[in-house]
Design goal:
Largest sheet: none
Number of helices: 8
CATH superfamily of the largest domain: RNA polymerase sigma factor, region 2, helix turn helix motif
Order of helices and strands: HHHHHHHH
């Protein structure tokens, strides 16, 4: 029987393998660089705090998603009670495109920001489901994270995609 890893070792291993989950959830639930940084720190703290409660029944990635999404939802509710801060110039992830011209970069950045703005207008459950699906989780894994049944995940994802498509109507037309 192998020794149980320390909290520090387990957290470090989780962050090495699943750290991008923290950034994805922060990007989906916070607006502006300052809010994303604050939320990402809170997500990491909550993952750290959850390590002793991890019992191994779920995969670590599923556990981290559950902790991060629950934390993000709580954070969003608490910030909703305060006065909304304005977006302080969101940074846009670098796009993997060979040497685009400045006009093309600006256009793609604008479209990407509009996609994130559409995600921000969706209900929290829709946003969570879409984020999990975009990250490649199966319906079963999404069900584990959200506590929904697999059938409900399928129906809810279909509806969430329809709502996102409606939000993105103008953006999709520009991409064609």
């Amino acid at each position: 029987m192998s020794p149980v890893p320390s909290t520090e070792a387990l957290f470090a291993a989780w962050m090495a393998e699943h750290g991008p989950i923290v950034q994805k959830v922060a990007r989906a639930y916070a607006r502006g660089e300052r809010e994303r940084t604050d939320l990402a720190r809170e997500l990491m703290f909550q993952v750290w705090s959850s390590v002793p409660r991890f019992d191994g029944r779920a995969r670590p990635g599923t556990w981290i998603y559950r902790v991060c999404l629950n934390t993000a939802l709580t954070w969003r509710r608490s910030t909703g009670r305060r006065e909304r801060r304005t977006d302080d110039g969101a940074d846009v992830a670098a796009l993997d495109h060979p040497a685009p011209g400045p006009d093309r970069v600006a256009e793609r950045n604008d479209l990407l920001e509009r996609v994130y703005a559409a995600l921000h207008r969706l209900a929290d459950l829709d946003r969570s489901l879409l984020l999990l699906q975009l990250d490649g989780l199966s319906y079963r894994e999404v069900a584990e994270v959200t506590g929904l049944s697999e059938n409900h995940v399928g129906v809810a994802l279909t509806r969430a995609r329809q709502r996102l498509t409606a939000q993105l109507k103008g953006v999709i037309d520009e991409l064609d």
